[in-house]
Write a structure and sequence with these properties.
Structural class: alpha+beta
Number of helices: 21
Mean pLDDT: 87
Helix content: 40-55%
Radius of gyration: 24 Å
């Protein structure tokens, strides 16, 4: 459409991305330009040098994919649905464009550090309060209310949409509701096309897969996105489903996403660096050199300081603190980030089990191993602060193939929303629509039953590389000999 070619941007993943005049105005705001300096993949570029693409380029790509999906839906929609689709295209493209606008520097690693620091108190997070079933009212009312609270990145986005003068001005001029944009970004199952922006196979994940594959050089983005988009349809409730013809392509997409996460986002060296970064950020928060309380973030947004709050801001803060009279362990961790000296992986347990039954075994292993860290730190004479642990359970789909009927009857929100975020499959009519995990001829009907559970222990060591390697092997061998029952069978 000519409407979407007020400006053209050359993109290495999608080719030409067309934008409307309104989208160009939003892109030119300082809050959006800030995303140029926020890495999409945290510290993954420490392992994959090309994986340093920004949330700026990813946001453009997500907006483009939403446009492609709506074009496909419009071409095959019944006449009585076309006007509604047409009227929603711009709103959803804007939501896709702004979906990451609230991310902290270094994205998820920093958000986890903030959560761990402010979670010292049970009321430390500003939880949403439901209003008429949809709107999340979670604004801090005063500085005293928010001293020990923090925002998740979705809620930072809400603050930006409400308080950033540039974005507010554009919305007011174009008569766009920031509240409606936020509902799409934060995913509300009651809105039309909700699973377009948040599901196991949404526009965000589509661009992420393609872009990460391109920038890492790994093959996991070689999925048939164009065909999947061509087979997307809308049901009577204005939610998306895919025709059964594309089920193999969807299986492939979900498998590739699993391998991509394991190989890139959860790579052993990447997670080691990000654990170290989290500790460094927590120390900055603890020493009051950095304030990420909800009131402080809200004030940054109102004052315009948010625009400079990016990866380079945090890196410079780490450099400054490293030069100051900081304690030894902090400097060691800071130098790990600044000089690319990863902590050493000394122990790993990883297994695939039933997604429900495996939880108890995994929890037992985590509790046991974390309890051992103090003993190991004494045995090897390495400060306990230099031992890092990471655990994760990854599922291929939001829920497994068997959702208890009792949960759905009670309409427990979390389980109900998870079910709605599954990819649904049907014929072109939309009748007999089922979650892909219930399709007997889909790989997901089997694979979604399982999860991969991972637990890792790292140690940040001093000395030359050869000294560190020697110490690492010594620790690994001692742990294996002394605790054979904890090894992977």
């Amino acid at each position: 459409m000519a409407l979407f070619y007020a400006k053209r941007i050359a993109d290495p993943v999608h080719g030409t991305i067309g934008l409307t005049k309104l989208e160009v105005e939003l892109i030119n705001t300082k809050s959006f330009q800030r995303l140029r300096n926020v890495n999409q993949l945290g510290l993954a570029h420490f392992v994959y040098p090309g994986a340093n693409y920004s949330r700026f380029s990813h946001s453009l790509g997500t907006c483009h994919i939403v446009g492609l999906i709506f074009d496909s839906l419009l071409n095959k929609a019944e006449e009585n649905k076309k006007e509604k689709i047409q009227n929603n295209i711009q709103l959803y493209r804007i939501a896709a464009l702004l979906h990451d606008i609230g991310h902290y520097p270094f994205s998820h690693p920093m958000e986890r550090a903030i959560k761990k620091y402010y979670d010292r108190k049970p009321d430390s997070i500003i939880e949403p309060k439901e209003s008429n079933g949809n709107d999340r009212q979670n604004k801090p009312t005063s500085k005293s209310d928010t001293h020990d609270t923090y925002f998740k990145h979705e809620d930072v986005a809400k603050e930006i949409l409400e308080k950033d003068e540039e974005i507010k001005g554009i919305f007011e001029k174009e008569e766009i509701s920031g509240e409606e944009v936020y509902k799409i970004i934060s995913w509300k199952s009651s809105i039309p096309y909700a699973n377009l922006v948040s599901s196991d196979m949404d526009a965000d994940r589509m661009d992420y897969m393609l872009r990460t594959s391109y920038h890492t050089g790994l093959p996991y983005g070689s999925v048939d996105i164009k065909y999947i988009i061509s087979q997307l349809c809308i049901d009577d409730k204005d939610q998306l489903y895919v025709t059964s013809k594309a089920m193999r392509a969807v299986d492939h997409f979900l498998l590739c996403r699993y391998f991509d996460y394991q190989q890139v986002y959860y790579h052993k060296t990447v997670t080691g660096f990000e654990l170290t970064l989290q500790d460094v950020i927590k120390e900055l928060l603890k020493k009051k050199r950095l304030d990420c309380s909800a009131s402080s973030i809200s004030e940054r947004i109102k004052s315009g300081e948010w625009h400079d709050f990016d990866d380079s801001f945090i890196l410079q803060m780490i450099r400054d603190c490293c030069k100051s009279r900081s304690k030894k362990n902090y400097k060691l961790k800071a130098e790990s980030i600044l000089m690319r000296k990863p902590p050493k992986l000394v122990f790993q347990v990883e297994f695939i089990r039933d997604r429900d039954e495996g939880k108890s075994d995994f929890s037992f292993k985590i509790k046991t191993l974390k309890g051992m860290i103090k003993q190991w730190s004494e045995k090897f004479e390495i400060d306990e602060e230099l031992w890092l642990s990471w655990d994760n359970a990854m599922f291929l789909t939001e829920v497994g193939p068997h959702v208890p009927v009792s949960l759905l009857e009670k309409k427990q929100l979390q389980e109900k929303e998870a079910l709605e975020q599954l990819v649904h499959v049907s014929d072109k009519t939309g009748k007999n629509k089922k979650p892909i995990v219930e399709m007997e001829n889909s790989l997901m009907s089997i694979l979604s039953k399982y999860a991969i559970y991972s637990f890792r222990i790292y140690v940040l060591l001093e000395g030359s590389k050869s000294e560190q390697d020697t110490k690492q092997k010594e620790i690994e061998q001692e742990i294996k000999q002394e605790y054979p029952e904890l090894q992977l069978k």
